[in-house]
Amino acid sequence: xxxxxxxxxxxxxxxxxxxxxxxxxxxxxxxxxxxxxxxxxxxxxxxxxxxxxxxxxxxxxxxxxxxxxxxxxxxxxxxxxxxxxxxxxxxxxxxxxxxxxxxxxxxxxxxxxxxxxxxxxxxxxxxxxxxxxxxxxxxxxxxxxxxxxxxxxxxxxxxxxxxxxxxxxxxxxxxxxxxxxxxxxxxxxxxxxxxxxxxxxxxxxxxxxxxxxxxxxxxxxxxxxxxxxxxxxxxxxxxxxxxxxxxxxxxxxxxxxxxxxxxxxxxxxxxxxxx
Length: 275
Prior knowledge:
The protein is mainly beta. It has helices spanning 245-254, 261-266, 268-274; strands at residues 3-5, 8-9, 13-14, 26-28, 33-34, 45-47, 52-56, 59-61, 78-88, 91-93, 108-117, 125-127, 131-132, 142-151, 160-162, 166-167, 176-178, 182-186, 191-193, 208-210, 215-218, 221-222, 239-242. Strands 1, 3, 4, 6, 7, 9, 11, 14, 17, 18, 20, 21 and 23 form a 13-stranded parallel β-sheet that branches. The chain has an eight-stranded parallel β-sheet with strand order 2-5-8-10-12-15-19-22, with no helix packed on it. The protein has a two-stranded parallel ribbon with strand order 13-16.
């Protein structure tokens, strides 16, 4: 038995089998939205149900942080505590941190399973919430414990996953974090981006962080903003595979030194389109 949301929901949504839960698969239609109350720090869509499925064609946001929310954190837009499947065709954005100081929430946090994100530049994407004040950070765009992330494909061109921006001295969030084994597939024309760091000392976010034995297959635009903090991406023990010679040259030449004038000149138009 499936369920759907086609109107505005202003309370947290739970996918499960309990009383008041939405059954799996849950379909948020193009006219539907989930946005918890302001200053609640609530998760938008949550599930601890193994095998949960979510399809989003509307808008899912995390609740913004508040002074009485621990750490002032914004809520994750989508959080699956067990293995599940998520398909995104539109907007998913983590809640912004408390303006007095707090980290942004993640766009998607998935313990394990598969995330297909096909929200293009004109139709949406996934982004972490904004972080506020120094010592805080924008939220992670996508966190995956283990599994597979497919960002864009030949049909849905230009999908973007991005860490939240920093405000008031905060640093930018990481675009994608893969904690364990798994694969990140970034299609042609798509992008995995760290968030902007705020003026006044906030560092730009890492585009991709592979913390163990994960694999990145990159055919799109990698890690555009990360050179603000000196790293194009953080491999640890993972593998980076890129089919474009210019991207391999980018990471070899500029991964720890910043963009050269030559590289900026050759790619200025691409950078403009990504802004």
